[in-house]
Design the sequence.
């Protein structure tokens, strides 16, 4: 279960990073800072993809080992 706990915390951290960078993206677009908007939007997409890939990979791994769907925390 240590893998599930690690995945849960990292997944939540990446989701928090994605929400924060989405806010920065919206502020940068509204203020006219195009380069910062691209950077914040890219960070948001990468963080969301990383969180979904990490959690999805652990769920697939647990199913492959015939475990029930994991409790992440």
Sequence:
């Amino acid at each position: 279960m240590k893998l599930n706990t690690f995945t849960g915390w990292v997944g939540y951290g990446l989701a928090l990073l994605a929400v924060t960078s989405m806010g920065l993206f919206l502020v940068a677009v509204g203020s006219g800072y195009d380069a910062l908007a691209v950077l914040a939007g890219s960070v948001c997409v990468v963080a969301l993809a990383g969180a979904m890939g990490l959690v999805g990979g652990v769920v697939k791994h647990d199913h492959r080992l015939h475990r029930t769907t994991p409790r992440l925390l």
